[in-house]
Amino acid sequence: MMRLIDETGAVVGDGATLPAPEALLDGYRRLVLARRLNEQAEALVRQGRLAVYPSSHGQEACQVAAAAVLAETDWLFPTYRDVAAIAARGVDPVDVLVMLRGDWHCGYDPLATRVAPQATPLATQLPHAVGVGHAARLKGEDTVVMALCGDGATSEGDFHEALNFAAVFASPVVFLVQNNKYAISVPLSRQSAAESLAAKGVGYGVPGVRVDGNDLAALTVVLSEAVARARRGEGPTLVEADTYRIHAHTNADDPSRYRADDEVEKWRPRDPLLRLRAHLTTTGALTSRLEAEFAAAAEEMAAHVRAGMGGESVLDPAELFAHVYSTPTPQLREQAALLAAELNEVRS
Question: Which residue in 105, 190, 258, 333 is the catalytic one?
Fold first, then answer.
């Protein structure tokens, strides 16, 4: 497993491949923002402003690195747990969160942001990601697609189909599996008997790389190399990031029913934010002044999120039928008319 900085913040090996201090410092700044976004979103759930929130607390390094290695012309295909990755890509976090409070749309323009809508069903975004990458290759565009998923998604048929197609047609896609050990309540040991999830790449003819998912430095190096490989036309890479879901699957989940507290406690010292902070403090790159600046920026972002999520959504129920077909079917017209009649009755 690729690792450059250990849990104490010490450099592993000779440090020859370690990213520049400026890059690590910017990565730490992004980690601080991502952690604060997770905390603020969870608070909004408790306040009734969000219906649900799948926190990425503890695995933010995967999300920050995935966004950081992409060019503006590249694409990010996220899951429902990748709010921090989308925000790190530059999308307003308020726009990212509106879907989780019940708005019907994803909140942002995928074409303008080069970020696909968050996918709640497991692995369904992966064939879409491969399609975008394949289309870009056919058109001769310099585009790479970063496709995010969790360990649970590797048990789905869409995962197999996406990797197989991408390998056969050398699609410029990087598959990043955030292995946080659980598919809701199902542990990895009940999902796969493979030596690792990265090893699954062998069956598709795809290089598989296993990396410490709580080591931002290692993630940056591995993902940068995978993106560069895809951009050179050498096809996809399967990256397995070894990480852990510290918080519950969502606020509706009770993790005590399927995992022990001592298991969680073993992972807390491996926190990606604490690890990088220790490293940067030891090297002198992170000063108290910079730490205060990053914290202030995170609080400003949190205040922006609170203000943006404070109002009620203004929704038009008729829009349920507006974008299903370019020419509505008789059934849709009938249903739309029935809803309109019921709404008129309520209003009168």
Answer: 258
258 labelled catalytic: yes
pLDDT in tens, 114-132: 999 999 999 999 999 999 9
In the annotation, is 105 catalytic? no
Backbone angles phi, psi at 191, to 5 degrees: -105, -35
Q: Which of 134, 249, 275, 279 is catalytic?
A: 249
Question: Which pair of structure tokens corresponds to residue 266?
Answer: 């073993």
Strand order in the sheet with 208-212: 75-77, 145-150, 173-179, 237-242, 208-212
Residue 245 falls in the annotated catalytic set = yes
- What would the pLDDT profile of 235-281 be if each residue is shown by its tens digit? 999 999 999 999 999 998 999 999 999 999 999 999 999 999 999 99
pTM: 0.94
CA distance 123 to 312: 31
Query: Of the listed 245, 247, 275, 279, which one is catalytic?
Result: 245
Please state, in angstroms and rounded to a whole number, the distance separating the CA atoms of residues 145 and 226: 11
Contacts with 157 (C-beta within 8 Å, 6 or more apart), sequence order: 123
In words, the CATH class of domain 21-314 is alpha beta
